[in-house]
Each structure stands twice: as structure tokens, then as C-alpha cells.
Amino acid sequence: MKIIIFLLIMFIPAFNYAQELNCKVNVNLENLPQSNKDNLRDFARAVEDYMNKTRFTNSSWDVDKIQCTLEIFFMSASGEVTYNAQFFIGSKRAIYQSESFSPMLTILDNTWSFSYEKNQALNQNQSIFDPLTGFLDFYAYLIIGFDLESWEEFGGSPFFTKAMDIVNLGASSKFSSGWLRSSSTYSRRGVVEDLLNERFRNFREAFYDYHYGVDIFAKNKTIGREKIVGLIKTVETIKTKQNVSGPLLNTFFDAKHGEIIDLLRDYPDEDIVRILKRIDPPHAAKYETLSEQN
């Protein structure tokens, strides 16, 4: 059944889109001097055009574009062309035969440094690291990889590998901040290293099953919940028995905790709340609402 759903999604008649993303971009320039604000007047449009008009895959994209939102908060400027910014990314994918969406990524990246000149053209160049377009490419590959991973087991691997290539280029550049693994709950390197690490293979398998559960939930609540609970128990095993944690699991729960709560309302086994609170402490208070409903 999972394979049938994937094939139906991939071959639904649609326009032959060359590009993969439908990305909305907003910027906040409040922290900058007026001269920098003037220089960045076209920045949101330039980034939006880049994300929506660049082709990030090598094959025809014959399904709906992936919906995503970028929020860029400029924190400071050094001279006329060098900036430090915070970056929020949100992406979602359609639930099968539904008008609803499942959240895929909800990431706040606090460390982005790059240069941009007024009316600068943004062009993809994968052989030379650019701290602006390389950063955007990294997140484009992450968005696409997570989306495909939810439809096909390990379907995102080629794009996670591309993201890792960018991480390595960024780490050896003069803009290396943010491209090195850190002890914080989120890091670019940490997420893709986890995705490509054999220790998280079981998680990635469960990630695929989880989304099958989300897709079938409206038609078969029992099977849907079985798949969702299966992922929760897989993460419990990874974190407790294997003593493995990392940015990938944090990133998953940042995006999915609300959906998990919605889909497990009235779930009869209250032990699931205890497990969720232990494996995802940052959202423990929200999981308490499941206990209150039972």
C-alpha cells in the first residue's frame, strides 16, 4: 500500500515543472542603518527568485512544488555589503488525497554571515562556495530531501549528500561560522551528519512509515496511529538503549510535535505521553495536554 501511494503521488498528471520549490520570502531590516536598508531593498525578491527558479534536481519534477517559507532577520551589518542574519525556514508537504499539509521542517538558524551588493545577481555555482547561494542551496536540498524521504524509504539520500558537500565547503571557507558541528540543539553539519550516519538508519525507516501513517490516518485511524507510535518507540530505543541523540531528532520534533499531539488525541495508552516527554523534553509541557484529554 505504501508503494502504491508513492507511485500515485509521483505520477499524478501535472504540469512539467522544471523547478521544485514554491518559496515565499520575507525579510526584516529593522536592525540595520538606512544605507544598508536601501542596498537590500531588492533582497527578498532576489532570494525568492533564486529559490523558485533554480533547478535543484537533475530529473523532471512532475509533481506539485514543495511549499516553503523563509524569514530572514538581519541582525547587523559590517560595512556596505557584509551581513549577519538569523534565518527561519518552514516547509510542508501535502497529505495524500487531502487538502491538509504535514509540517516537514521548522528550523531557526541563528548563524548566517554573507556578502550582498545592491542588485546583485544570484547564480548557482556548486564548484565554488558562496556564503549566500551556498546557504540557500543547502536548505533547498534539505527541504527536497525531507520531502522525498517521506514518500520513499531513503529517498532523500542524494540530496542529503549534496547538503553535506556544501557543509564541507562552507567549513573550509572564511565564512565557516555555522558550518561546523556545535554543541547547540541545532547545527547544519549535525543534521546532515546524523541523516547520513548508520546509527539513524532505523529512524529514517520509521520516518517513512510515520508519513504513511499520516497519509492513511483519515481512512484508517488504527493503522495510522500504529505507524506514528512506531516512530516514537523507535526514537525511544535510539535515545535510551543506544544512547544516541543529536540535532536530527531535535529538528524532527520541532516540526512534528504539534502534529503528533493532534493525531494521538484520545490515544488509549497513556504511557505514550511519558515516552514523548522523555525523548522530547523541550516540548514536554505540550505533551501534557494528551494526558488531560484522556
Describe what you observe in this structure:
This protein has helices at residues 2-11, 34-39, 43-53, 133-149, 157-171, 188-195, 201-216, 221-241, 247-263, 271-279, 284-293, and strands spanning 21-28, 66-78, 82-94, 101-115. Residues 3-17 have low confidence and may be disordered. The protein is globular. It is α+β, with helices and mostly antiparallel strands. Strand 2 and strand 3 (82-94) form a beta hairpin. It folds into two domains: 2-196, no CATH class; 203-293. A four-stranded mixed β-sheet has the order 1-2-3-4. Helix content is 48%, strand content 17%.
How is the secondary structure organized here?
Layout: H1 2-11, E1 21-28, H2 34-39, H3 43-53, E2 66-78, E3 82-94, E4 101-115, H4 133-149, H5 157-171, H6 188-195, H7 201-216, H8 221-241, H9 247-263, H10 271-279, H11 284-293
Parallel strand pairs: 1-2
Antiparallel strand pairs: 2-3, 3-4
Helix pairs in contact: 4-5, 5-6, 6-9, 7-8, 8-10, 10-11
